[in-house]
Amino acid sequence: MEIAQKIKKGYSNERGTGKFIGYPVKEYIIDYRKRVPNYDTSNLLRERNPQKVQRFVIDEDYFVYDSAIINLTEKQLVDRIGERVAELKKQYSDVYLIRMDENMHRESAKNAALKLHQFSEYTQDVHFEGFQPDFILYLQNAEFFVQVFIEPKGINLLEQDQWKEELLTYINENEAELLFEDDVQGVKIKGLKFYTMNDGRGTMKQLAQVVLGHDFDGLTMHNQIELQDE
């Protein structure tokens, strides 16, 4: 059973490194097929909010696809970033949110290239399998560009996937350990703590601090999703 689980996770017995290799975006942002489940994933995840995965049309310049197959938490993240695009563009000329679905390159070597791996030597719980964050926020100005990894998460999975969040935040706290290819200049890599429904953990506030150096102006305009009584 343990071996089978490792195979499913893409098990590797090697620790990752802090080296980032640049790949042309056009080679990775492709159309993909994904089955839309006809059940409410909140029933499986013991969430109290409806989390039915569905296709949402997102006709916005900042989103690199014209639609996305996502759940309600993910859609809320897309909307909340969308309302901050104008403010982000005061500092960055280019602002793009990229959905990195695991189905894009499932049967390709590119699948492994997109995954993050633990590279800290002092990690208490070692996980050799990598993971691919669900979203990348790409920001660019005249001096540099920033790539922010963002992972929405159901609250019931916070403990189980804590190692993923630790990896994302470790990137921010240990920038000196990050290495880039010689021909890649002016790059900043950032990671955020998990985004949960209604942003109860303050992920958007962290995003503002990471990429702007201050809080976003005003409160979010998007309504919160009310918890349903059991």
UniProtKB/TrEMBL annotation:
Protein name: Uncharacterized protein
